[in-house]
Amino acid sequence: MSSSALRRQRFLVILLATVLILAALLSLTWVNERIDQPADPAVALAQPVTSLFSTPVPSEPPSDHDYAGELAQSAMEAAFTATSVHIEADTVYYGDHIRYDISIDRNGQALGRIVNAEGETRVIIQGDTGYVQFGEHLPPQEPGTPGWLTGQWISITRNDQTEDIFAATQMPLLVDDVLDLPDFDAPWRTYEHKTLDGLPTVALGMKGGERRTYVRTDGARQVLLHREEDFRASYSLWNDPLVLEAPPHPITWEESTGQAPPLSA
Fold this sequence. Notes:
By secondary structure, this protein is an alpha+beta fold. Helix content is 24%, strand content 31%. It has a 12-stranded mixed sheet with strand order 7-8-9-10-11-1-2-3-4-5-6-12.
């Protein structure tokens, strides 16, 4: 597995681990007579690619290698200068199918969800403040009110315990690192031409390799699809402003773990 694939695998594993850790912490807090134990989330949310590079495609490229290498270089530069992107990713981890759907920008904002066999978890990040909402997979928490946290937004703030969940939703990790393509001089080749979301693309790959990166061939050199092994991600809404609002009536992490009385509805 390539180093970039390993980084992607690490990112996706962190996302899943955070969800499970948060749910487990909530469960253990109640099971253990509300033991006062600080939350230790280690999550990650969702990333990408593209930008405003509009170099015209040469009508008669000097060679397939040069043409493919130029496209790859432009796509990587576009990704590194993008202000925002929407990502939908699918992967399989130890037999568990995990799906990610997230929008992020370079102002530290993120909005998305993680879905696996256990259910759906939604996340909102606004600077140093975050919100997490668990789906039906969250076990009953409070005697007499089974599943009272299901569907409830829980607010978290950025600190030593929650740093991972905030850091993992930043564009440098989710875009720059995930789409860190090989340099122009690498053995790039073009493969199939494909229309994605009504836009013309060409698949780029390394000679002899199975990884494919689909880059727009008109206008901005945007990556629209990337796939390799058990990982597949599509990218859209490059540079579209991301406008977020705090969820209504969130409760604090202390309230969710029983360290403070829950707010009344």
